[in-house]
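Appendix B, record 7
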Amino acid sequence: MPDCPASREPRADDERARELARLIPLWPSEIADTSREGRTRLVAKLECALKAERRRGRSGHWTYDLARHAALVRIWRHERAALAALTKQASSQKESARTAGAARLSVVRRSNFQPS
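Structure tokens (predicted):
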């Protein structure tokens, strides 16, 4: 299969920004926001764009573009995977903080313990 734009993953942040700006109307600050909340908003916007593109395709509308649809699906999957990784990372950090807090608490309890 030839190296077509719809079959490859974005390579760098500048290519990601260029493709997102080409596919859906976004402010540069929305594209640059790679926080969990920013990616959540971006995934929601991509889902809306995908729904609209699917509607156009199913109705046979003349503005439907298969290449745009494929690019939207690819970017949506990539952003969803990045969001899942951020969510997993945040939950593992919370868990490690929780266990560290419990370990500190047990050390404090042992140091305050004085047998009579």
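Remarks on this record: The first helix runs from residue 13 to 23. The CA atoms of residues 56 and 62 lie 8 Å apart.
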